[in-house]
Amino acid sequence: MCGIVGYCGYRRTAQVLLEGLKRLEYRGYDSAGICIQSTAGALDVVKRTGKISNLQNAVQEGAEGACGIGHTRWATHGEVNESNAHPHNDAADEFSVVHNGIIENYLQLKQGLEAEGTVFRSTTDSEVIAHLVAKNYRDSLEQAVRDTLFLLKGTYGIAVISSREPGRIIGARNGSPLVIGVGDNEMFLASDVTAVLAYTRQAVYLNDGEMVSITDKEFTTLDLHDRIIQKQIELIDWELEQIERQGYKHFMEKEIHEQPESIYRAFQGRLNTETAAAHLGGLNMTLQELRQVERIRVIAAGTSYHAGMIGCTLLEQIARIPSYAELSSEVRYRNPVIEPNSLYIAVSQSGETADTLYALRELKRKGAKVLGMCNVVGSTIARESDGGVYLHSGPEIAVASTKAFTSQLSVFYLLSLMFARMKHCSMEDGLKFISALQEVYDQIRDILGRASDIRDIAKKYSHYRHMLFLGRGKTFPVALEGALKLKEISYIHAEGYSAAEIKHGPIALIDEHTPSVVLVPDDFLRDKVISNMKEVKARKGKIFAVAVEGDREVQDIADDVFFVPKAWEHIYPLLMVVPLQLFSYYCALELGCDVDRPRNLAKSVTVE
Ligand code: M6R
Question: What's the mean pLDDT when you consider all of the chain?
């Protein structure tokens, strides 16, 4: 989704802004722009549709200034063109604004301004902010922005500069993240800390209802009533190289291959062989409170929802706690009843997904206890949860989520072990659980070492226009995830189903033009899945099976098969998703798709 970068300091402003915008590319965008303020004050705006490189080519060599703001736009209001790209200026070009989020009452505000003679240059909701700031300016930019914020309904993260106050940026946040990067004689403002990581590790996160005034020397955080708020500087421990490709062709490929390490980090320091249990530090719940949990509800979207579905099955089967995952977008509006002794878990890689954040707020409003399971440290969901667990996957840049998914599963294993050991699970079984988890790194390394086998299989399947993904039990959500991965990056139409469900409808689609990807773990449902495979073959459907090493029967039925190492049955979702990630990656590669930045998608979906 949209991204913001702002800079005040001694470096070449255009270069800092463009580099920051490039770091935000992964979030998804369709146009970009910057506004540089010359030392004399004048505002120079350059915008382009398409890639940042288009913008880079258009920015004058040596375009320098006291400060500047930049933006990547992911269109919501108004088509993709240069006038709709940000920054937006007021009529006199004295104020320039970049905005993430949606101004819900923009039409009403626009009509009011037009009635007073203001001419709009774009069809966005954001442009009203620039005109309103200009109209409200009396004594300072800070005052003008503050007065404007009281008129806005909706969500925003904004950065504003003005020729009347060279060298100053005003930022404000309501529902759309903003972080201040603190340097020496330079300050940054960004919607995502990755934009400034090349320059500073020191970050200050704004909360909703907060503003910041930045110069190269200092930053001041304030509330909307002009009261100073003291904020803590947090140290970001992500390495810059973690957000670079390190020789891989795509971030997605790199992130798939990072999984042995990212899973290791999710477990690190949390598995205890002395107690045969898992210990999670940030839950903010006493032992007694944890023992009182009678049911768990997971809220999430997309890939995180699939992880939540598997997590709930694990919690139910291993810890014997009734658990259920629900799409966060649906939770918010169905007026959920909060049952006593329920624990809610909001799962989100980015920690900024609007559907999940708003559902979390609604649940908390109704008195629910909500934990966050996020990857991005300091993200809004992480901060607004009552407690939580970080994934520690490191930055996930590719739009298609891969390593965050397996880290989410890893944390669900930890939660299952933790709860199980508080109840019925013996020390012996706890230790078996831990050793099964500790084998995962090598098992995934083994799968990744055979990635070229999957590339060869993908070559045979990438020309199909439709595919079904079938699984049962814990691998049913893996089938959903495999289908999601394939469709989002290769644009091949793919649907995930419980293998048992195909006879209730989807089997009508099966013929020689619609292959199926079937997951066959060696659990007690295996024989039933084998029967489903035979049903597919009877209708001339081609099958790519992901099965467990040594399963000759699957090999005989399927056209192609990839074996994962033999493991404890609960581990198969974690192992079987990896070949599916590789399969979608190689299909997309075959089709020449933009793997890391698939069309229409955004990494962090901050609008409803
Ligand atoms: O950041 P989140 O985990 O909350 O994101 C949720 C979904 O938007 C995300 O998983 C999306 O489905 C990915 N593109 C899947 O690869």
Answer: 94
- Which residue's alpha carbon is at the smallest distance from atom 8 of ligand 1? 302
What pLDDT is stored for residue 80 in this prediction? 87
DSSP 304-372: HHHHHHHHHHHHHHHH---EEEEEHHHHTTS-----TTEEEEEEESSS--HHHHHHHHHHHHTT-EEEE
Q: What percent of the chain has pLDDT over 90?
A: 83
Ligand 1 atom 11, closest CA: 302
Q: Read out DSSP for 294-307?
A: -EEEEEE-HHHHHH
Whether residues 490 and 532 share a domain: the answer is yes
Q: How many domains does the chain have?
A: 3
CATH value at residue 479: 3.40.50.10490
pTM value is 0.80
Beta bridge partners of 66: none
- In a shared domain, residues 150 and 294: no
Structural domain for 491, as ranges: 444-593
Using CA atoms, how far residue 565 sits from 217, 406, 482, in Å, is 56, 16, 19
| pLDDT score, position 61 | 62
Label the pairing between strands 516-520 and 543-548: parallel
pLDDT band for position 394 (50/70/90)?
Answer: confident
Q: Is residue 176 part of a domain?
A: yes
Choose one of 384, 411, 438: the last residue of a domain.
438
* 203 and 344 together in one domain: no
Report which residue type is found at 102.
Answer: I
Residue 604 pLDDT > 80: no
Residue 603 lies in a domain: no
Binding pocket residue ranges, ligand 1, CB within 6 Å:
301-304, 348-350, 353, 356, 399-401, 484, 488, 601, 604-605
Examine the domain organization and report whether 351 and 497 are in the same domain.
Answer: no
pLDDT of 605 higher than 90: no
Confidence tier at 194 by pLDDT (50, 70, 90): confident
**Closest residue by Cα to residue 21 from 145, 157, 151, 198:** 198
Which residue from 74, 250, 401, 595 has its CB within 8 A of the most atoms of ligand 1, so it is best to mutate?
401
Whether residue 205 is predicted with pLDDT greater than 70 in this model: the reply is yes
- What percentage of the chain has pLDDT greater than the value 70? 99
Are 404 and 456 members of one domain? no
pLDDT, tens digit (0-9, with 9 covering 90-100), for 400-431: 999 999 999 999 999 999 999 998 999 999 99
Ligand 1 center to 298 CA (angstroms): 15
Q: How far apart are the C-alpha atoms of 374 and 378, rounded to whole Å? A: 9
- Specify the pLDDT at position 62: 59
Residue 464 Ramachandran class (φ > 0 left, ψ -120 to 50 alpha, else beta): beta
What pLDDT does 63 receive?
Answer: 60
Do 426 and 457 sit in the same domain of this protein?
A: no
Is there a single domain that holds both residue 422 and residue 275? yes
Final residue in a domain of this structure, among 438, 469, 487: 438
Joined together, the tokens standing for residue 149 give 């914020």
Average pLDDT over residues 69-89: 90
Distance CA 560, CA 476 (A): 20
Close Cβ partners of 375 (under 8 Å, ≥ 6 residues apart):
348, 349, 350, 351, 390, 391, 392, 393, 396, 404, 407
CATH number, position 220: 3.60.20.10
